[in-house]
């Protein structure tokens, strides 16, 4: 695997590219809304760019892989998905090996991680017979790809548009690069309080960032206490808690555990982390709405707070490198290399470095993993 393929792990450089000229259909609609109702909050803009039913990025594109806009860990190496399968099998055993368990993936991409995980978990006797597979996906193109990837899987498989649609029952949930794509809100600190950061129409008739004129009422009451004294012009980001609360409620009410892997920060901080990625390069967030991916770092402290409010227990986050090492990625890499050609062995080494390495080309320290469990579960595997 080439080490030059970009992922969504570093901040975009100054002067990020503008991918196309002219307005996209979604920009026309965004401008119409701004002219009718005034500047649009960042969260609303991001939601339209990603999830608009007709023109949204995640509802109309296959963004993954070397030919897409970015690459995720499961597409780098089979080792990633296999180790997630090892984690699932260990969780099932720790749950007491229930005869029926829902295996749930949020945002399954092309189905690669689940395919590799299912192959690995066959080593656990009885687990395969206990599983029903549930994939939460809204992108019809990716859903079709998942069906092709998993066409030889004999387990019962169902697709859902939301976690809340999955039938009740003991569950093991995995989510890799899911929460970073959920819309993020932003507020900017001014002398008179925190103001909503918006998207408006600039002096040269281009989309531009704007600040709402009136402060957000009582915003300090929802701001993490450690951030009350940050300097003026600081930007604070937060997401709607619904997805995190749904996940917490699921494991608290039904039993089981969830594993979330994403790029983000361990504690709540200030800073603008909004970025856009297209064709393995960074782009201007306000250019070509609907045609490029927009993400922001995950606040793992806020995620844990929302999950724990539903009665679940939170563990971590730990860096991805630590998770994968504890699950045995280095041993797995050596095993794969024993019968590999020199070229393939070199690819395995490059993939290993990509998954657990540090620095700009490595995901090991930038990505983090957190686990959420039923209160009776105990410490989850690798944590």
Molecular structure report:
Helix content is 33%, strand content 22%. The chain contains 13 helices and 16 strands. The strands form 3 sheets. Strands 2, 3, 4, 5, 10, 14, 15 and 16 form an 8-stranded mixed sheet that branches. A hairpin with a 2-residue loop joins strand 6 (184-190) and strand 7 (193-201). The chain is globular and about 65 Å long.
Features of the shown structure:
alpha/beta, 13 helices, 383 residues, single chain, 16 strands, 22% strand
- Runs with pLDDT <50, length 5+? 1-20, 65-69
Task: State the end-to-end distance.
Answer: 29 Å
User: Main sheet?
Assistant: 8 strands, mixed
Can you write the helix and strand succession as a string?
Answer: HEHHHHEHHEHEEEEEEHEEEEEHEHHHE
Topology:
Blueprint: H1 25-37, E1 40-41, H2 42-51, H3 57-60, H4 73-76, H5 78-94, E2 101-106, H6 112-120, H7 127-130, E3 131-136, H8 140-149, E4 157-160, E5 171-176, E6 184-190, E7 193-201, E8 207-211, E9 235-239, H9 242-254, E10 256-265, E11 275-278, E12 281-283, E13 293-295, E14 298-299, H10 300-309, E15 313-319, H11 320-326, H12 329-337, H13 342-356, E16 367-373
Parallel strand pairs: 2-3, 2-5, 3-4, 5-10, 10-14
Antiparallel strand pairs: 1-7, 6-7, 6-9, 7-8, 10-16, 11-12, 11-13, 15-16
Helix pairs in contact: 5-6, 9-10, 12-13
Could you provide a short overview of the structure?
This protein is of the alpha/beta class and 383 residues long. It has helices at residues 25-37, 42-51, 57-60, 73-76, 78-94, 112-120, 127-130, 140-149, 242-254, 300-309, 320-326, 329-337, 342-356, and strands spanning 40-41, 101-106, 131-136, 157-160, 171-176, 184-190, 193-201, 207-211, 235-239, 256-265, 275-278, 281-283, 293-295, 298-299, 313-319, 367-373. The strands form three sheets. Strands 2, 3, 4, 5, 10, 14, 15 and 16 form an eight-stranded mixed β-sheet that branches. Strands 1, 6, 7, 8 and 9 form a five-stranded antiparallel β-sheet that branches.
